[in-house]
Automatic annotation (TrEMBL), chains A, B, C, D, E, F:
Family of this protein: Belongs to the creatininase superfamily.
Protein name in the entry: Creatininase family protein
Pfam families, alphabetized: Creatininase
Keyword Metal-binding included in the entry's annotation: yes
Top-level taxon of the source organism: Bacteria
Species this protein is from: Billgrantia antri
Keywords: Hydrolase, Metal-binding, Zinc
Cofactor section: Zn(2+)
Length: 250, 250, 250, 250, 250, 250
């Protein structure tokens, strides 16, 4: 059910029975001393592939780059500007819409993408509302689901880590990424154990001053591969529930 | 304390003691049968002027146009695209930053602006994080405060209207706008009494299909000028608290 | 007759009898030692509201920010780049055009906006001329009227101030803004009495070198509230004459 | 003195004694039944080359495309959008500024370019005023001279054609272009003799409705090669006077 | 050696010994009856990971979307406009440059990306050449290597398929993608055996008219997993040779 | 057959029998010690005019500015950014397409334009493929022919100069430009006789370090006016052959 592994004739056949698609979107940014630069892309990709496999939903290629400007003072971060990401999302949706996809479900792994996703949806809808956009296309529904914010995931993170979950380089996302990439697990002592809390709405230099090792409010040394497996189950249930409600609202 | 009423020498003097500024931002869009097209601009402007008056904070001119593409099927709505609004906010902040303003507090009256404000802040910060922007400027802090989401305002709306408050053309915003513009009060029967609920993330034609008279989940016939006065008090307290926490974080 | 004070149903009713609208557009920029930062927005807004009141023409919210890059070396100035202002004007016109407005009359208070307004009109028309724009919309007429350049206003300024009228922070605009905002009148001695003359086509630092206190060729200490009232009458007559000629050309 | 005919070493030598340059800018658009599509480029180019020759001023290559959207309903017209032309002018000026040119004198042949030239200058200056542009560059002066609006040219046109000069496909510009390109002279009867007058601020289809054969208020059948020679002399004097005043203001 | 699997501290350490990085870039587009929609991303990603593994070069996340507008009439294709892709590449390079990467090697899997990659490099260099870009960054080298155009790969394709290799949905790329994704191999008869040849420089509808099943000049039914393994070896040698020459030119 | 010398009625008549057009495109950039800054525009313009004359094909005005950012460290160079050039080419093609031109043949004189031309074509086609562009226009074919890369020109350059032809400020283009502008011939000794070879994919300062006098691999002192005449013949034959194959493919 991965678009990358299908032929165009197989996509054609899929569109005759189903017009929804999942697009995983992440980021490429530092995730503290033991978290992977790819965490935010690996997590939603893993969840999306599992949803696709279990329930027969087509999954587009992962958008690996997101809006991560505040992490640019840490080596390895690659950020798009919001205006660039809006253009990427717009072209993605127009392309899918041309083929007859009516419901595009962005499965998101990065809090920093949320506002830009929403702005991009409005930009796309505005083309039609202002009457100058891709007028022939029909119905078009767009939504974002943050895997890390589903109710089952939130509950599990609370029960496993409590206050040490944090808001960036969280224990839960590190756990899920380790389950997906066990060869990349790193064991690192955290100092301080729980990172400082605060706002990420600033530029890169200021962010690094506020959060010297990149973590925000978390102790990701609590993460484990076994936890990751449980997060996958929880997030697949959350995402599938959200997808169904999106495709066929009551 | 209104920037429009100051000379440049007065602004110069202000900057020697204080480097924060409030920018009211609203929208120009339908607000149902008895709500004003200007509701979303009038409300934050009224709150901002009152905060400015009481506490000596400078208030910039109101940004009257916001992101309202989903309301374009109702006459009178004027919308900026997100990309246009990002450019406006960017130029506004760069201008203020050049003069030495370090804290720009957007007092917002429209839910549809929230994502674009956040994307705009990231666009501005990204210029600096990527090293190609207005490098000489110093400290720069940006935030959004939604007057309608402050705790005192929420509590008052709950106590006065409960479920009939709604999410667009709400009873509370109609009340506040009427207090600010008593000459424009309209008495209209609502049918159905409480408007349908749902999502506004769609284009203009779809929005009008979902919400035929423009209201979302509200009964704004419950609004009154007297309520409006109480909302002003509540929102001024909320906004001032938020402003102080922004300017001088503990 | 202010769009901000109407409901969408009232706009709907207006459109059945009349499809013209006035959009006041100004700037937020220094106006010398006794002129208000908001002068260029306050003046056309005041004229537009009076025209609307007397003659029943709908008036859109004021565009408070204009093209004022050359004033940025004076605190309080907020400028849009021409490209940003073009986008704002384009979205404004497309929004109005969608509702059936056919004649958009920009009542302008700032000389620095004139070229950008004209470029924006051409950008909007070019979308249609190139066949890729908002094709369904019908007739579309766009014009700019500078309140300060009407024949009655010019004559009055000449008779009251002669050479001391100047070209920025003029005596006439200071007078009109004071009539509109009597609470903001400032009495300041001018030195030199008449400011230097010259061109404003330069960047901000160069502008401040050329015009140290912000005035260009004017002595606005000659202004008075009583003069302002006369300027209002003259400019309302000028604007109404221009509006009628625009809406119903002979 | 044509930049296209110089080597870079010759430009280098020129810059040691002089830092001004003339950039001819025109348009590619219909000019009625006997006017050439290239009229607006050929005229300023011819004037510029003659000024360059007589007075030793460097002349850049002609910008052949301008803002001509209103002429697009006539075959042969090629128009840039204002936003495109702003980008072209901006890159041109930044390139010249990098080499040390401090005064860029646009010798313009098309009324439709005037607003966009002015907006482009503001866009360029705004980059510096906002502190994010090409900061290292030094002094930068930009101006437009319309060859057709110089006092000697106006006087000559008045004396030769009176009311039949018109405002597009004028007798004077046709005459000058014929002097420059005698091989392209066309003899065509005009009907009506003097074309209708009116405004060109509209889209292409509307323009063609207003001005069926492309002329505006003119009778270009009055033009002759001999007149063209006199217009060249007049316009070279006008342009040289304007250039000197620009380079070395009193 | 995959950036997605590294921590920022590991990237930091890498940068102390090496400042080159490989960025795989592909496309998401139809590849005929037996080729995968993800072929153009899977191939360079596979080559890049192998080069990274064997020679210790860091590999950035794959850019899965490319310039594929001409394939949009086949379901499953997702295309960026050239202008969007330029923005993505620009932000990617600026991000990497900020960290100290000096050599960015794009390992490309799609012919349709070549021109846009080159234009993007020029856009990035132009920011510096015009003096307004990310000035503090140091040395910056950018190049594209097309895995499918390396000498060893060309020789192998010629020897295996001769004329049946083709230019889109080629036998060689199908073979390599199958080796990388054996679970996605499809056996489909081709009719005609060798697809028509021609140019892809056209829009989507025209492309589908020219190439009805999506192939251009190829018979990809000749592909096999075993061939794919040989193409991987050949392309890794080609890419590594090109990378070394890029990093340390003689 | 020059569009600049035609009336719109003549273009109208041409379009009834023929819908192809040639657009010369060059650059304004240094060409070493004896080459003209205008070489890259003068050469294709000369070839285009000759093709137009001999075979009755319409020739649009020359695009004198191209993508020359790498030459900006040499005085006299004027460069457009790729994004600006894309906008220019897009507006040019949309304008021509509106009139009914179906085949636009860019006769190019500058290697640095090739990628951007190709990206611009894709941008134009993408507007249609994505369904939001100038939909009413019909057939649209776009191509680039590099006069310097035609087989007859290559053969002649090889026979005359061998290795001394080089890749920038080549002997062949200097020869052709001298034939076109005999008054601008310069005799300069070259040192070293053959300039260094290398890549031009870098910024302006780096380019000047690599190629101190601006030449790349050439000895243009071998050029002569007589050679130029032979290059004109060869290139006219090459271009006409390419044009015919483009207009009426077999």
């Amino acid at each position: 059910m991965r678009l990358q592994h299908a032929t165009w004739q197989e996509v054609d056949a899929y569109l005759r029975r189903e017009t929804g698609i999942i697009v995983p979107i992440g980021s490429t940014e530092q995730h503290g001393p033991n978290g992977l630069v790819g965490t935010d892309a690996i997590c939603p990709e893993t969840v999306a592939w599992e949803v696709g496999e279990r329930y027969g939903v087509l999954v587009a290629p992962t958008q690996n780059l997101g809006m991560a400007q505040h992490h640019l003072a840490f080596p390895g971060t690659i950020s798009l500007r919001p205006s660039t990401l809006i253009a990427v999302l717009r072209d993605t949706v127009i392309s899918l819409s041309r083929h007859g996809f009516t419901h595009v479900f962005f499965l998101n792994g990065h809090g920093g993408n949320v506002a830009t996703l929403s702005a991009a949806f409005a930009e796309i809808h505005a083309e039609r509302s202002m009457g100058y956009g891709p007028q022939p296309v029909g119905e078009l529904h767009l939504t974002t689901h943050n895997w890390f914010a589903g109710s089952r995931v939130r509950e599990l993170a609370e029960s496993l880590y409590g206050d040490a979950e944090g808001t960036h380089a969280t224990a839960s996302e590190v756990a899920l990424s380790w389950f997906a990439r066990p060869e990349a697990v790193k064991h690192v002592d955290m100092s301080p154990r729980i990172a400082p809390r605060g706002s990420a709405q600033c530029d890169a230099d200021e962010f690094r001053r506020r959060f010297p090792d990149g973590r925000m409010g978390s102790d990701p040394s609590l993460a484990s591969i076994e936890h990751g497996e449980r997060f996958l189950d929880a997030s697949v249930s959350d995402a599938w529930e959200a997808y169904r409600a999106f495709i066929r609202p009551i």
